[in-house]
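Summary for the steering committee. One of the milestones for this cycle was to obtain a three-dimensional model of the protein with protoporphyrin IX containing FE bound, which we needed before selecting residues for the alanine scan. The sequence and ligand used are listed below.
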Amino acid sequence: MDSREVRTGRWWIDRKRADDGADGLWRVHDKLYDLSAWLHQHPGGKQWIALTKGLDITEAYESSHLNPDVDLILKKFYVRDAKTPRNSPYTMEPGGFFRTLKSRVYEEMKTMQTGTKMRYLMCEITTGSLSGDLEYLVKWLCMLLFMGKYGQIRHSKIRDWRITHSLSHHIYTNTYHDLEMMMMEPFLQWLPKEDKSWIARNLSWLYTPVVYLCVYHGQAIIRILRHGVEWPDAIGLATPTVMYLFSGATLLQCLGMWSFIMLFSSVMFATLGFNAAHHHPDIFHEGDKPRKDTDWGLNQLDAVSERIEVKKTFPWSHLSFGDHALHHIFPTIDHDDLAELYPVFERTCAEFKVALSHMTTWQLISGQFKQLMRNKGNATAPEVRLAVST
Ligand code: HEM
């Protein structure tokens, strides 16, 4: 990857298309499928299928669906075997960690009452049955989260977010293929590269707040410069327009307040996103010695740490990217349900002798800055560093 290139979701996907050996079809493991005629029928929406034409979708496909019957649908679209080996370093072998956990989670979820907590909380909020202070706090946090998510999605657009977050960051966490991390270069460089500049190593803690402030606007400017103005960009103007039409404030005041909201949610989103789970010298980053086992699920665990304070808590885990390891491995499971899956998750980790890393919020925040300074890879592989004694 050329560090001078301007990285956007669509740029990433074009590069990946050239590497994946899918011959303009959809690749799952070592087989090619033609989903063109089926994309409108995909229950998860046609965009996922349309976006990934010409790509290896193995990890996205396997982690998005728990039900093994989905494979029966896929089979109908088989065209031929792929001619080249997969470009991804990861595997998902039967009997391996990921597949074992996936089938157990699927069975477990059959017996669970899923997706109820958030609905219950919303009922409590709308009927006003929470105690005064708690209701105020929860509403405030929900509004912040909404502003953050809405603002981020608006600036990056859903399509680009699906690429940078779901197809890139979720699958290739903390590697060169993790666009969410690589898009912040050269300002923030988490990979332990020997050629990291002195400024990036030693001064990034100082200019980090400025980078956080610029994330939304920077992404929007880069995307518009690279791909031009597109009609969904108009959605972004809905907020100041509504403010102007209904608040009685002047246009300048509305634009000022809108800019403040965007800058505020940019800082909030970046602070949470970059400090919540992935960056600490003890967490795997490309450049460190990887574990021998190439199982995708295990490698996901190496790139994540749980935040002790919010683990299994509701709604704090929702609001601050908690229960992150399970969320990474099974991104389509409602965040509501993750807490209940820990017994099966922890049992499977113990069986595979893999330790789930746990850190406090402060350890992760300070570790994130230490990671920015790190320019040497860990020589000890995660299975040795995080070994579980039996
Ligand atoms: C890039 C690859 C894909 C992604 C990211 C993806 C994503 C999704 C998402 C987000 C859902 C909704 C899940 C929910 O609401 O709980 C879904 C459902 C579904 N998808 Fe996909 N999908 C992909 C490829 C495929 C393929 C290739 C097939 C089969 C040919 C397929 C078949 C289904 C089916 C049957 C469902 C509904 C049942 C279920 O969720 O288990 N998907 N998908």
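Key point for the committee: The beta strands are 26-28, 31-33, 78-81, 306-307, 358-359.
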